[in-house]
Amino acid sequence: MIAFPNCKINIGLNIVAKRSDGFHDIETIFYPLSLCDALEVLPSTKQDGEDEFILEGMLLDGDPHQNLCMKALRLMRSVVNIDPVKMVLLKKIPSGAGLGGGSADAAFALKMLNAYCNAGLSDDQLKGLAAQLGSDCSFFITDIPAYAHGKGDLLEKAIVNLQGYTLVLVKPPVFVSTADAYSGVTPALSTLSLKTLIQQPISTWQHTIKNDFEKNIFLHYPIIATIKEKMYNMGALYASMSGSGSSVFGIFDHPVNGAHLFLDCFYHEELFK
């Protein structure tokens, strides 16, 4: 069984309040992209009956058995019986980029294991499990544009029409940890909800929709601010850092030929979702 966990971007990100549990309340729009990893689930080939995890593609730091896919397996096994499995992850989505690659892998692992062992868990049940693995993991269970609030785990369907636009995504050689990103922000209530602002023409977003992480992160990593500026110089209708960074995306109403030559473009696509 194989699936392709895709990434997301954040259109706007307001940090609303510091919670008593140490997390933050936010509001953001999650929008899925087709850029993806590949994840395969097979029966384990180990004679001792242990699970296997193989990572290919981009290297990740840390113990492989602490990868979110393996955490998803252990969590799923706490509610359903699963024979030993082999999980192979081909990593294409960069980490520390604000694209939710690890969260997507975890959510897709839950969905795949649900099908693999015929557990029959509903999307709501899977979302409940996913929320235990990461604040944005639940989004990838249904994987449609969503207005997210609370820790990012409370989701409402968002009507976002980007059909026919081109998206350019740039990931500089910078890693921004979520902890570092939150350390430099001051929570504040927004005067207008993103649910309202996202319905306005994209040409207005530059002046109304912001990412609260940018101010502090741009000071520490000016290359990210430079990329955003270049996006606008190229004619982007809207450009922003995604999530807690470090990737930057631009939305254009025209093809962006040769973007990779000017911006060291990591990825671009026509948006039809």
What does this structure look like?
With 273 residues, this protein is of the alpha+beta class. 40% of the residues are buried. It is globular and about 60 Å long. A four-stranded mixed β-sheet has the order 1-4-6-5, with helices on one face. The chain has two domains: 2-157, Ribosomal Protein S5, domain 2; 165-271, Alpha-Beta Plaits, CATH 3.30.70.890. The longest helix has 16 residues, at 101-116. It is built from ten helices and twelve strands. Helix content is 29%, strand content 27%. The mean pLDDT is 90.
Short structural summary:
This protein is α+β, with helices and mostly antiparallel strands and 273 residues long.
Topology:
Layout: E1 2-3, E2 6-18, E3 24-36, E4 38-43, E5 52-57, H1 68-77, E6 85-91, H2 101-116, H3 123-131, H4 139-142, E7 146-149, E8 154-157, E9 165-170, H5 178-183, H6 194-197, H7 202-208, H8 214-220, H9 222-233, E10 238-241, E11 248-252, H10 259-263, E12 267-271
Parallel strand pairs: 5-6
Antiparallel strand pairs: 1-4, 2-3, 3-7, 4-6, 7-8, 9-11, 9-12, 10-11
Indicate the CATH class of the largest domain.
Alpha Beta
Approximate shape:
globular
Write down the CATH topology of the largest domain.
Answer: Ribosomal Protein S5, domain 2
The averaged pLDDT comes out at 90
Q: Please estimate the helix content.
A: 25-40%
Domain unit count: 2
What is the spatial order of strands in the main beta sheet? 1-4-6-5
